[in-house]
Protein: Protein GrpE
Amino acid sequence: MSNAENGQEPPEQETPDIAAQNAEIPASGTAEADAQKKAYAELNDRFLRLAADFENYKKRSERDRVQTIALANERFACDILEVADNIERALKSDDAHLREGVVRIQQLLSAQLQRHGVCPIESLNKTFNPQEHEAIAHVPSDACTGTVIDEVCRGYRMHDKVIRYAKVAVSKGKENNHKEA
Structure:
């Protein structure tokens, strides 16, 4: 039986039709593949951006948490400093027993403050520094101009940050008492 008798066309005629169909399949397959690649690239880009945003969020959250804790500690330290000021005033009392008890309390408080990174700013006989001192008076004295001659209220630093400026009196040098006649 021949191919014509079986209802089939000769193989020579099938080849061009199959080749045409096969040519269309890769073309449409390439378009679909390109579309899928494009969609994949967009989704991958979106994923990478979301991952980067999430990492930035974690870093920002950690930074905010650390700042919040530092601010809370700073507020606590400022509240305690008021107590420390009152203890220092009591230390100037003449009553010996009261003074001895307050000295012990003051030493304990100072140790606790230092444990938390709170240290006093040394001011007396130092050059006035606006980053540590607040000048509340300029007084004539024998000291050099710009020297701190009195500390009205002690300043404190927590780690490297000034949390309370020292209120000080600053020398403006010797006063001229020469009056013109």
